[in-house]
Amino acid sequence: MSSAPVAASRIARLILQDFRTYASLDLTVSRPLVALVGENGAGKTNVLEAISLFMPGRGLRRAELAEMARNEGPGSFAVSVTLDAPYGEHRLGTGLEPPGETARASREGSRASRVCRIDGMTASSPTAFAEYLRIVWLTPDLDALFRGPAGDRRRFLDRLVLAVDAEHGTRVNALERALRSRNRVLEENPDDRLWLDALEREVAELAIAVAAARRETVERLASLILETREEDSPFPFATMGLEGDLDTLVATLPAVDAEDRYRATLRDYRPRDRAAGRTLVGPQASDLLVRHGPKDIPANTASTGEQKALLIGLVLAHARLVASMSGITPFVLLDEVAAHLDPRRRAGLFAALESLGGQVWMTGADPSLFAELEGRADVLQVSPGVIEPLNGP
């Protein structure tokens, strides 16, 4: 990975076809800051979700692809972007094609198939888009991240890792499948030691790789935050760490030794795991620990406003880390973030976003939230199925 970011790409054109509330949309933007304003339910978040599909995974809502197809449409959808990049223009596309329109769909029966294309050529998966863009985002459902269950923080952490390591999602999915297989064998054939040995070898290899990738990202992000923190920033810095038996193992042993030790743990814990109906030790039991740096208190004990500011600061720092590690300045998607900030923090947010150097897409119900960005942002009015300049052409 490059140690210095290249100049940022921008989405110059976004085309949607039968996506969510949009029968057809052809949107052109020209500025690095884009603000979408409109009433709740108008379709602002749908635009951010469409852009987020150029990351591996199911987008910022974590929805099934079939749910994204317009209700009155044919059951398929298409999203494409034209990137204005320092090294030339590229067109990326993804979507859901109805059964029968691809050879893959024909082989798989009636199930619709996701397609990915780069400059008109078919790509194997959304992972291929990582060569052209990276994306980070913040949505209202993350407001409870610090006080919610550990599973939410693991998903958040895996998304942080995915933005710098496009293969991380593949490893996480493979680990989940291997764990399900082990759990099933423990339940149905607990005495089949050869089968369990083989499964646990696969689980251990994947688990150590996932845990190591998480640890590297957390350590790099924590280091960047401490190196770049500003005491007078409206967004307090965070300190971070990982908690879990496997995380301790990965932190103290070489990967090969950690893998052997974890495999032995899986073998010894078979009776306990069978009784529990799940594998109790592993990356699936880890937690991301975050503290409010200036106050040195657990993030979940800070006030609601402090937690929001802490989370914004964390996402901004992550965007800088992505640029540093990948050499690609990321796109930033912010859904309804500015609405809950006081004027000082809102001004601080806009200044921080501009300093990142990448393109930022924001949403908000009240146009006044973006009044200070006049002349610096494309402010667009969103109504069901339509997007146009706020003050007309």
Automatic annotation (TrEMBL):
User: Mind telling me which HAMAP family this protein's record contains?
Assistant: RecF
Region ranges (Disordered): 90-109
Q: Which of UniProt's keywords are assigned here?
A: ATP-binding, Cytoplasm, DNA damage, DNA repair, DNA replication, DNA-binding, Nucleotide-binding, SOS response
Q: Which family does it belong to?
A: Belongs to the RecF family.
Q: What does this protein do?
A: The RecF protein is involved in DNA metabolism; it is required for DNA replication and normal SOS inducibility. RecF binds preferentially to single-stranded, linear DNA. It also seems to bind ATP.
Task: List positions binding ATP.
Answer: 38-45
Q: What is its main location?
A: cytoplasm
Name of the protein this chain belongs to: DNA replication and repair protein RecF
The subcellular localization recorded is: Cytoplasm
Ranges for the RecF/RecN/SMC N-terminal domain?
11-379
PROSITE patterns in the cross-refs: RECF_1
